[in-house]
Amino acid sequence: MARSRSYKAQKLIERMQQKLTRQMVVSLSACVHCGICAEQCHYVTSHPDDPTYSPAYKADRLRRLFKAHLDWTGRVVPWWVGARSVYTDAELEKLKDVVFGKCTNCRRCSLNCPMAVDLATFNRMARGLLSHVGMMPEGLAHVSKDQWETGNQMAVSPEDYLETLQWLEEDLQSTYNDPSFNIPVDKSGADVMYTINPREVKFDPRSLAQAATIFHLAGENWTLPSEGWDMTNFGFFTGDDDLAAAMPSRVYDAAERLGVKKIVMTECGHGYRSLKWEGPNWAKRTVRIPMESIMVTMRDYIQSGRIRVDKTRNSLPITYHDSCNLARSCGLLEEPRELLRLVCTDFREMYPNRAENYCCTGGGGALMMPEYSSRRLESAKAKAEQLQATGAKIVATSCHNCVDGLLDVIAHYKLDMEVMQLVSLVANALILPEQKSPPADAQG
Amino acid sequence: MLSTSPLLHFAENALQLIALFFMAIAYTLKLRWIFRFPASADRQPPANPAVTNGALGARQSLLAVAMPWTMASTRQHPLLYVQFVIFHLAVAASIAMSFAIPYAPQRIADAGVIMALQLLFLGGAAVGIVRLIRRIADSYLRAISSPDDYFSLIMLIVWLLSSTWAAPNHPSGGEAGLTVYFLLTAFFLVYVPFSKISHYLYYPLARWYLDRTLGHRGVYPLNGA
Prior knowledge:
The complex is a heterodimer.
Chain A: H1 7-19, H2 22-30, H3 42-46, H4 55-69, H5 72-76, H6 89-101, H7 108-111, H8 119-132, H9 138-150, H10 158-176, E1 192-195, H11 199-202, H12 206-217, E2 222-223, H13 234-238, H14 241-258, E3 262-265, H15 269-283, E4 291-293, H16 294-304, E5 318-321, H17 324-328, H18 335-343, H19 373-378, H20 381-390, E6 394-397, H21 400-412, E7 418-421, H22 422-429
Parallel strand pairs in A: 1-2, 1-3, 3-4, 5-6, 6-7
Chain B: H1 6-12, H2 14-34, H3 54-63, H4 72-75, H5 78-103, H6 111-137, H7 139-144, H8 147-166, H9 176-191, H10 199-216
């Protein structure tokens, strides 16, 4: 007699069959259970006695479902190949705990798999299947709802957004004693449209002020859009491809409406990956407007002489944390290093680095899932050891999420370090024209 | 007039062809099934075409099997990589031998070649045993292993041992070794499409799709880490 299945489990299985791509099918079929991925995962290195943290084990939670419903052998003799379907909501809860609470989708295992099995993409897909039946951590659900409803993850109203920009503009005019200092909004035909993380207007506008200062001193013809300014994407974290397509679409629409020549993105790893690479795929549209991270923009300004910097103002030893999304999934490997060498005197690598770096442990939306915080901080041991070995006093990064992740690691492991974004280091090193005075909090 | 028994003659020739034909049909159907799923591809232009692109990324990726230094996982475990090389070379040589014995026996008739093959097969079987022990003893591997994982490994160990026995190809000295080898080879050919051993069919596809994307986005070829 066939075993009965809960409504949600049935819907999840149906959804899986709709969402599978050729890449996923090949990847799901290719794993040989060699286990070499295990120690590439920061969760494993800090939980050496618990095999349930192994990437292959975690990926098998989805693979066994795939095998039970699609694989030839799995459908006939499921026990032989470890195929198993899901039947109850309790089993879905267990799956949720694994895919949201034991993996940050950092993709380090994927790049270290001899078979090129993209385990992180499995994990995102499994998240998407669960989200489809309403199962995701409350923090992610809350923020996703805000993004759907308001177009930004912190539910900043249009009035608050514009007021904050106005206040920021007045503050910068006063700080620099320069009435020409402005933060343009919806300027048609601007060369650059800048997109930001909502926390820059909601909680901490310093990085936005620093970016505005850099654009101003570079003489950039830039603008912020009044709509479509949030470059973050919680659909990326939850696996909800509809939200994942909707968020970047708002930005592309804004850029096309304003007729800008380029979209420049604030320092945000998942936002950059979502907007530049995955967004056009999810939204099924080709975006002809070039997109770049502000780290690249700043490097180009310095190299072309549009802004001048004095690297001795950043004289403390600085290391760089590669955001997983920027490095492993988007190839921004040398650009941050080129920039750092221009703006600081003592840059030192941490090892491993670039595409082999360890996650800050705050990726994959982990910072919005406090129920898994203790597990996440335990898993940060590898990161803490990496940081400590550099002897640096500052860890620079180019991702808002990594800033928060690293701050947690530093506090938890009591490291003598602070975290700075690249934009802050550039702002700190800026040589201002004679009539302008530097902002007090930018002096090192 | 046959120089071998009808059973061995059948096992060496007709049985192998039947098994190969079955395998070819199974793989054709499997590939047809895989290619029915939609493939995704990046819509944006490549990140850094002066340095890399999708084709370069995929090329490095496909060659990664011969470049253990490109992945931290293989750099950290050179012995596992050596085991991988020996094991897969032994399997490839045994497959080649299953064609050489019936169709070009003179190519493996030299005593030196026979000894080299036997050493390779024994080495492969030894690696298989080490891998089996690792799979049983390592809690991480045990947690992800299915009966197919164990059976495939045991089957290959036995098959490589039978290859060692069959390598001299002297039916006049007794056909048991050759008969066992060819019967196992036929079983192997029929079983493989339904087991994890068919990973070699997926390997180039998996590498191509992932690393074409990473090459397109400027991640591959990796350097400097």
